[in-house]
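**Discrete fold encoding**
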Amino acid sequence: MANIIAARFETQPEADRALEALRGAGFAGQSVTSFYLNPPGQHSEYPIGGDAHHDEGTKHSGKTSMAGAAVGGITGLAIGTAATVATGGFAAVAAVAGAGVGAYVGALAGGLTGAEAGDKSKATTEEPVERKAGVIVAVLAEGAGAQDSIVQVLRAQRPQSIEQADGQWRDGEWVDFDARRPVKLIEGR
């Protein structure tokens, strides 16, 4: 396995500046590559789309959705009842409608919150916490001190993240890159 250092940039011009800086520092040719990383879920690993059956964060979305529905339902019921009383009448329909709308909004908010709560330390290829989209600049780190030099050059270009990976490098390309593979961050998020 090869030692690979990769940085993620938001734009192509930022990645191009990093590539120039790496060339200026003596890293060029078959030891440097770049590619665009699609947003999470858009790598078509499954025939109907998506990257995984579910990711590490979605394990908790059912629980947080139910909690959100309960809180939203109670809040909606209270608001619906208060609105009905404030207008001088009592219509059970308003209270029930308020509870329904509150439960729906609460479930949606709770589910989305739970889906965002993935713990990177528990991620696996089957249940990933995927990298964000962007342009990846990858460098083969060969020789003593190469990793530190590469990280220093990349850090100066202000990437969104810098990671270290063990992978297969062939003919100037990172051939076994998998967006679902857990990330070993050097810095960033």
Observations:
- The beta strands are 2-9, 32-37, 134-140, 161-167, 169-170, 173-174, 184-188.
- The radius of gyration is 24 Å.
- The chain has two domains: 2-53+127-188, 56-117.
- The longest helix spans residues 61-86.
